[in-house]
Specification:
Layout lengths: L1 H12 L2 H28 L3 H19 L5 E5 L3 E6 L2 E7 L5 H13 L4 H31 L5 H26 L5 H4 L1
Length: 187
């Protein structure tokens, strides 16, 4: 019971603007999860397009760095494979297409008090930046797979994921540092 009272006291000490931010963020994230898991993900509404576009972009970038051999891709039911000289190098699963990172980024921007124009600009530029960061991550992973590196799993699951999330945090910090004049009206 003491823990509950401590949490309630902390909640009431939190500024109203921060409480609104947390409530709106939580509700939007919950709504997204319900819609995504319940309908979008099973039908690959966004995932299929994003996964395939990401894979095509990765193949085009890899072709610029590898002058011998050829890269192609193969779209499958829940992922896409990058092929090098006809051999599967690695796959991009729907879970690795950065859609969840885009959504988390956008929700933070939407609920943070700022002007609508600044929010739209930051969401668009942030999504493009996150996409490019994810492509770079996948190109580096493909290079590790091609070279048969033993560090692929550590790089994939820990190092590169940490870099991507640190990048998103950096974008959020930039967004929160420059407040527009009409920010208070936006909340």
């Amino acid at each position: 019971m003491i823990i509950v009272k401590d949490i309630q006291a902390l909640w009431h000490q939190t500024p109203v603007v921060a409480r609104k931010f947390l409530i709106k963020g939580f509700l939007l994230l919950l709504l997204w999860q319900i819609i995504n898991i319940g309908y979008l993900e099973p039908h690959r509404i966004f995932d299929g397009t994003i996964t395939n576009f990401t894979t095509v972009t990765i193949v085009k970038v890899l072709e610029q760095f590898y002058t011998t051999g050829s890269f192609t891709y193969q779209a499958l039911s829940h992922d896409a494979r990058v092929l090098y000289n006809g051999q599967s190098v690695f796959r991009i699963s729907d879970a690795c297409n950065a859609l969840s990172v885009f959504v988390d980024f956008a929700i933070f921007i939407i609920v943070y008090p700022n002007s609508v124009g600044r929010k739209i600009n930051f969401i668009v530029l942030g999504a493009i930046s996150i996409f490019l960061m994810n492509v770079l991550r996948c190109v580096l992973l493909a290079t590790l797979y091609i070279s048969h590196s033993t560090s692929v799993n550590v790089m994939h699951h820990y190092v590169f994921s940490t870099i991507v999330y640190a990048f998103v945090l950096f974008l959020w910090i930039i967004f929160t540092r420059k407040k527009s004049v009409t920010a208070d009206a936006a909340i």
